[in-house]
Amino acid sequence: MSLRVAILISGGGSNMVTLADSMTGDHPGRPCLVLSNRPEAGGLAKAEARGIPTAVVDHRNYGKDRKAFEGEVQAALEGARADVICLAGFMRVLTAEFVTRWQGRMLNIHPSLLPKYKGLDTHARALAAGDAEGGCSVHLVTPELDDGPVLGQTRVEITADDTPESLAARVLVAEHELYPAVLRQFCMDFRHL
Ligand code: GRF
After folding, report:
1. From edge to edge, which strands make up the β-sheet containing 29-36?
2. pLDDT digits (tens, 9 = 90+) for 27-48
3. Can you list the residues of the chain whose pLDDT is less than 70?
4. How far is the CA of 132 from the centre of ligand 1 (A)?
C-alpha cells in the first residue's frame, strides 16, 4: 500500500508540483491532498489539473484562533487519510500541539542552509552577511520554527552580482531537485519502520 502524502501550500506551488509529479511508478508515496490556507493560491489549479483532491482552509476566517484553523486542517487531513505531510511554501506557523501530533511525519523545505537563517528573508540575509553560498534544506518539523532534524541540503553558490531575487530563483531550482529526492527516501524509510 502506498503512503498517502498531503501537501500544504500557500502560493504558486512549484515545489508541490515537483513533489506530486515525482510520486509515480515504484515511488512508495502518492499525493492524497493539496491543501491551501489561501483560496487564491495558484497551486490549487495545478493540483486540480493533476487530479489531486484539493481543500482550502482560509486562515482569515479564524482570526487569531489558530486552534480552530488547525482543527479544520486536521479534519481535511483525516478525511484524506494522510500518512505524511509535506509543507511546501506553507506560510502559517503551526502550533506545538498540531506539530506534535504529526511529529516524525511532517517535512518542510526552507530556503537556507539551516541552522542559518530560520524564518523569513533568507536570501537577503545571506547576501547582507557576505556569505559565499546559500541553499535549501528539507527538515522534519518540530515545534520550534525551522529547527527540526535536517534530512537533506543543497548548496548554491552566491555570485557577486546576486540580488535576493536572483539567488531565490537559483535556490528554487535546487529545491525542486532536493525535495522530491528527500521525500522518496523518507517514504522508503518510513514504510520499513
Ligand atoms: C519556496 O522558496 C520555499 O522554500 C519557500 O516558499 C517558496 C515556495 O514556492 N518557503 P512554491 O510555492 O513552492 O513555488
Report:
1. 54-56, 29-36, 3-9, 84-87, 106-110, 133-140, 150-157
2. 999 999 999 999 999 999 999 9
3. 193
4. 22
CA 95 – CA 101 distance, rounded (Å): 10
**In the CATH scheme, what architecture does the domain 3-191 have?**
3-Layer(aba) Sandwich (3.40)
User: 128 and 116 in contact (C-beta within 8 Å)?
Assistant: no
- For the chain, the average pLDDT equals 97
Q: Which atom of ligand 1 is nearest to the CA of 175?
A: 4
Cα gap 40→70, rounded to integer Å: 19
Domain extents in the chain: 3-191
CA nearest ligand 1 atom 9, residue: 89
- Cα 136–138–140 angle (5° rounding)? 150
Can you tell me the distance from the alpha carbon of 35 to that of 163, in angstroms, rounded to the nearest whole number? 31
> What is the distance between the alpha carbons of residues 37 and 7, in angstroms, rounded to a whole number?
12
